[in-house]
């Protein structure tokens, strides 16, 4: 059995003029990388009416810990009259979401809306635990 990587999944984080924050993790979203991403999303969903877009197109693997992060962030956003949207075009990820019964729970888009893709472009990647919004 190989030893798992201790590095958290790196992610980009960018704000927009509309108040939406886009977080784009990449790589594996698993037991090791979930805690720093969860902490970042907790920060982003702490205020009133948070609007977060989680761009998962560069995530190559997600396990139950990763799904738990998504559910927690969604619940925190909704509790504060906000929203969490997912961007995902990976058939495997979409199949997992469907099989665990979360397909009607998340607002999933196949691509980032153009207004959000342009805002904040060019920001450097940072580890999921050290993102600046």
TrEMBL record:
<dbReference type="InterPro" id="IPR003658">
    <property type="entry name" value="Anti-sigma_ant"/>
</dbReference>
<dbReference type="Pfam" id="PF13466">
    <property type="entry name" value="STAS_2"/>
</dbReference>
<protein>
    <recommendedName>
        <fullName>Anti-sigma factor antagonist</fullName>
    </recommendedName>
</protein>
<dbReference type="InterPro" id="IPR002645">
    <property type="entry name" value="STAS_dom"/>
</dbReference>
<dbReference type="InterPro" id="IPR058548">
    <property type="entry name" value="MlaB-like_STAS"/>
</dbReference>
<dbReference type="InterPro" id="IPR036513">
    <property type="entry name" value="STAS_dom_sf"/>
</dbReference>
<feature type="domain" description="STAS">
    <location>
        <begin position="19"/>
        <end position="119"/>
    </location>
</feature>
<feature type="region of interest" description="Disordered">
    <location>
        <begin position="1"/>
        <end position="20"/>
    </location>
</feature>
<comment type="similarity">
    <text>Belongs to the anti-sigma-factor antagonist family.</text>
</comment>
